[in-house]
Amino acid sequence: MKELKQLNSAQVRRMYLDFFKQHGHTEMPSRSLVPVDDPTLLWINSGVATMKQYFDGQVVPDNPRMTSSQKSIRTNDIENVGKTARHHTMFEMLGNFSVGDYFKNEVIPWAWELLTSDDWFGFDPEKLYITYYPEDKDAYNLWKQVGVAEDHLIADKENFWDIGQGPSGPDTEIFYDRGQAMNNLPEDDPESYPGGENERYLEIWNIVFSQFNHTPEDTYEPLPQKNIDTGMGLERVVSIFENAPTNFETDLFMPIIEQTQALSAGKVYGQDKTDDIQFKIIADHIRSITFAISDGALPSNVGRGYVIRRLLRRSVVAGKKLGIEESFLASLVPTVGKIMQDYYPAVLENADYIASVVKAEEDRFSATLNGGLNLLNSVIDEVKAAGETTIDGQTAFKLYDTYGFPVELTQEYAEDEGLQVDVAGFKAAMTEQQVRARNARDTDNGMGVQTGLWTDFETPSEYVGYTDLEVSDAKLIGMAVEGSYTQSATAGQKMVDVIFDRTPFYAEMGGQVADTGDIIDNHGTVVAKVVDVQHAPHQQNLHRVEVLTELKQGARYKLVVAAARHHKIEKNHTATHLLDQALRNVLGGRTQQAGSLVEADYLRFDFNHFGQVTPDDLDKVEEMVNEQIWAEIPVTTVETDLESAKEMGAIALFSDKYGDRVRVVKIGDFNTEFCGGDHVKNTNELGLFKIVSEAGVGAGVRRIEAVTSAAAFKYLQTRADLAAQAAASLKVTQLPELPKRLEELQDQLKAVTKENEQLQSKLAAQAAGDVFKDVQTTTAGSLIAAELNVAGMDQLRQLADQWRSQGHSDFLVLATEANGKANLLVAVSDDKAKTVKAGDLIKAISPAIQGGGGGRPTLAQAGGKNPAGIQAALTQAVEFLNH
Predict the structure, then answer these.
(1) Which of 33, 239, 594, 732 is least surrounded by CB atoms within 10 angstroms?
(2) What's the helix, strand, coil split of the chain in %, to 5?
(3) Crossing angle of the two packed helices 793-806 and 738-771, in degrees rounded to 10
(4) Are residues 92 and 117 part of one domain?
């Protein structure tokens, strides 16, 4: 038996990547967890998720052989984290990929070499088992040829990779036998086999042979090009090399667990199963939180931000179960950074910032958690006061959903008070929420159907729009109509795509919209209109045109960009760079672009920022941009290699998009950025810059919309006209006096409002003097019920306060009509609330006013749209109390 090598996580990762680099693969960087230009994904959730554009044929990679170690997040099984050996929210997926290059004949021998060669992983072949798709005889024969024993090859009909529309095909999975000592089942258990639900046979690698298109018609057609997609979980493989019982006892997690152990109230990892779950939850979740924030996501109540918030709250609750009462998660961030420093140095470099975000969120949740405890204690008191023994499921779910209380924690508090929790009701509420979430989620995370159109079209096309907006002799070298190549297109056809050997039309990219314009024949006739331009798989500019007369393959045409629109776009693109830099200068270096849109009429700029942007900061940003415009700074561009551009200090927005040669746009000494877009020659061409709006649009993402040049002047002119109209209405002769006049009017309004409230209170008090004298007798107790002519619910509540302090009766039911609506209020004395709750009474009588309401056992209120039903509601109150 071969002795197992001792490799740590950094060594395993590097060995895998180096192996495939030696076999001609390009090492791709681990991309941001926040997907770029992929709205179908909440997070990057696998290695292949970053390769979709290559596999569905949208883009042809520089090298069809690629390898990566991709950080990923999945939260569909978050409740299992800590309870199992291998569930994680964040993990790393090692992978090697082939786009139309090698296939089974190459990848299977390579896989066996990597796994068993002494130069690489050096696993004992006797420890490896392979599953394959029963109909995939090629894979079966190839595994036998490389030396896999027949009794280590297992046919499994589940070995077919298919996530819906797009590439699919059979796969083969590789399992490592950890021995019966590691198993959680008896050796003769039906599930104790490679591929079964057991801990002995650990799945470490899945190799997918993408050879079919799963079409919209639900058929499987041969792919134009066959692909290889593989995935090896780093955490699992490291657990083998480090002989760890679970993934958590590896160098990827143990430093976090050990630090948490030191912070706990004497808890020791490995001594108590319940405590171990809390240690694992914290270790797993802080990794996800740290990396997500490092990649630009921030805590919030929606989308990715909610995921971060939920993970953090689960971690805080786990910490409390370990006796950690103070904020502690922020102190774990540098530990995560040190563990991952070998491959992800940016995490440790940004540890202070990440920790500050975690600390602020943790402190905020601690206050929320205390609020949840207050609510829980109130619920416990009410349940006891009512003589009941169970906290209902909806309340338990509210504690979980709003305050982050796991139902187990609610149960613990309830048990201390001799109560139970309706767990079935909690689960029903949870299921309802999950159904709502699934219905709201965009589940289209499959790849596009691979058509092959333009994939094999490699004829180059030159973009000359940086210097020329007209080309007089462009040759039409490729044309397609409705998904098929053609030699000609006729008048009226609107879905025509064409490629020219030279073009001045910009293809949409980097937030800048595409150019539009005309295609003109040699007679000066406009034969087609360019309405959009995108990139073909080999990066040629692909023009979507509306044909007016006729287009022919091989013919030459004059191409003319709509110059006025193009120049507006240039101004807004340069303004976007100025805005980006100004935000960094004013708000701090952590601010970074999260997306942009450069149109002819306006620009939109999204940026990551933790916190609000104050009006004062916006004024500083706007002033800084305009200062650069009025300074008349030359805007220059240079094309250079990637490293030289970085040495110039160029800002890289999404570094994984850049090739070996890059274009850098430089605005004097103020801003230097990677950019392939169009820009003005001098900032003075912008004339003026004006921010139109600023708001939050997502998880830690702010959005600014702005205008330049003539659009900025028109915006300011409109505002000036509105101010002049307001001044005229208020009879203000000088515009600077308008704010003072508005302030005076506000003061007058406050005084009138206060006087009105005082009068209403007096009227209510007068009305109460008569109302409180009319006391009725009911079976349940004494009752005062009346309709009053007061201003609304506030006055009814004031009367209820007087009634309670003076003890006029056991029950009070008041009603009033205000603004065409009916208002009802029910108050119950403290003694009677033990048998008759105000909320029950309000629910019984509010249908009479076509409304609904609720409240506490001693006070409830309702509103309705039928004031005519008020008397009926009062009558029903008497009937309710007489039963």
Answers:
(1) 732
(2) 40, 25, 35
(3) 40
(4) yes
The domain boundary residue, chosen from 534, 561, 588 = 561
Does 588 lie in the same domain as 518?
no
Residues 572 and 553 both lie in one domain: no
**For residue 542, what are the β-bridge partners?**
534
90: CATH: 3.30.930.10
Q: Is the pLDDT of residue 447 over 60?
A: no
Q: What is the pLDDT of residue 530?
A: 95
- Residue 56: pLDDT band by 50, 70, 90 thresholds? confident
In 3D space, the residue among 272, 277, 288, 268 whose CA is nearest the CA of residue 248 turns out to be 277
376, 398 Cβ separation under 8 angstroms: no
CA distance 592 to 576: 12
Q: What is the mean pLDDT of residues 499-524?
A: 94
CATH (domain of 819)? 3.10.310.40
13 and 69 belong to one structural domain: yes
Which residues are annotated binding-site positions?
573, 577, 675, 679
List, in sequence order, every beta strand (DSSP E) within 298-393.
Answer: 390-391
| Domain boundaries, position 535 | 462-561
* CA atoms within 13 Å, Cβ hemisphere of 877: 32
Residue 30 to residues 46, 207, 253, 337: CA-CA distances in angstroms? 11, 20, 20, 15
Model confidence pLDDT, tens digit, residues 275-309: 999 999 999 999 999 999 998 888 877 778 888 98
Residue 331 neighbours by CB under 8 Å, 6+ apart: 259, 263, 355
Please report, in range form, the residues annotated as the binding site for Zn(2+): 573, 577, 675, 679
The whole-angstrom separation of Cα 670 and Cα 621 is 13
pLDDT tens-digit map of 534-580 = 998 888 999 999 999 999 999 999 999 999 999 999 999 999 999 99
Type of residue found at 373: L
Is position 269 within any domain?
yes
The beta-strand segments (E) located in 37-165 are 65-73, 90-99, 128-132, 153-155, 160-161
Condensed to tens digits (0 to 9), the pLDDT of residues 724-780 reads 888 888 888 787 888 888 888 888 888 887 887 777 767 666 666 678 888 999 999
Residue 406 lies in a domain: no
Residue with tokens 């997070």: 43
- Say how many domains are in the chain: 5
Q: What is the DSSP letter of 791?
A: S
225 or 124: whose pLDDT is higher?
A: 124
List of residues 6+ apart from 287 with CB closer than 8 A: 89, 90, 253, 256, 336
Instruction: Report the 10 Å Cβ neighbour count for 821.
Output: 16
At residue 867, does pLDDT exceed 80?
yes
Last residue of a domain, one of 561, 586, 619: 561
What's the rounded Cα separation, in Å, for the pair 586 and 601?
26
Question: Rounded to whole angstroms, how far apart are CA atoms 566 and 468?
Answer: 11
Alpha-carbon span 651 to 696, nearest angstrom: 24
Residue 207 above 80 pLDDT?
yes
CATH of the domain at 637: 3.30.980.10
Residue 169 included in any domain = yes
Q: At what angle do helices 615-630 and 563-587 cross, to 10 degrees?
A: 130
Asked whether residue 289 falls in the same domain as residue 143, the answer is no
Query: Is residue 29 domain-shared with residue 115, that is, in the same domain?
Result: yes
Tell me, yes or no, whether 451 lies in a domain.
Answer: no
433 in helix, strand or coil?
helix
**Rounded CA separation 747/719 (Å):** 25
CA nearest 636: which of 605, 672, 688?
672
- pLDDT tens, position by position, 227-253: 999 999 999 999 999 999 999 999 999
- Residue 521's domain is classified under what CATH number? 2.40.30.130
Q: Long-range CB contacts (< 8 A, 24+ apart) of 614-617?
A: 617/586, 617/587
8 A C-beta contact, residue 846 and residue 824: yes
- Does 224 lie in the same domain as 283? no
User: What's the start-to-end Cα distance of the chain, in Å?
Assistant: 84
pTM score, two decimals?
0.68
